[in-house]
Amino acid sequence: MSTSTPSQTVGPFFGYALPYAAGPEVVPGWRPDAIRVRGRVLDGAGQPVPDALLEIWQADETGEIPRRPGGIARSGHDFSGFGRCGTDADGGYWFSTVKPGAVGAGAPYIAVLVFARGLLKPVFTRLYFPEDAAAHADDPLLADVPGARRATLIAEREGERRYRFDIHLQGERETVFLGF
């Protein structure tokens, strides 16, 4: 007689080895074209998720996707298109990066992966920028998202070169996640 073993979620373990000191700095904050993206990861009850890990992947300011060998160590001027940040006790995260240019016919965006307790696999979403509203109308992915849900993919502008993008894993304000 065989006994089934129940599936298990992984974590929390993100505090070891995955986050690294320069992970949130896709570009150094002193660069004149640097932007700051911050936000919180929240569960279905609106409570912070203090042990989540976010990764971002993006094109550079001209819309070029980096294809050269990259790494987690940057020389201060290089742009790898990749960043990683663990959340703090309030579910907060931040990235210093550049505003991406459009890739193809779509609107500029940053791809966001969220790893968190209770998830067997990361969830994928996109962060779009509010000032690109005209380009949002022609974006193929946004066109497939119901109008009432599109706002969950658009960051809020908090000032000059500053954006806020909260991610709700479940509930009434759940962020739109993409299936692959």
Automatic annotation (TrEMBL):
The keyword Oxidoreductase applies. GO terms for molecular function: ferric iron binding; protocatechuate 3,4-dioxygenase activity. It is an enzyme of class 1 (oxidoreductase). Its EC number is 1.13.11.3. InterPro entries: Intradiol_dOase_C, Intradiol_dOase_core, Intradiol_RC_Dioxygenase, Protocat_dOase_a. Residues 34-107 form the Intradiol ring-cleavage dioxygenases domain. It comes from the Bacteria. Keywords: Dioxygenase, Oxidoreductase. The keyword Oxidoreductase applies. Belongs to the intradiol ring-cleavage dioxygenase family. This is Protocatechuate 3,4-dioxygenase subunit alpha. It comes from Actinomadura geliboluensis. The gene is pcaG.
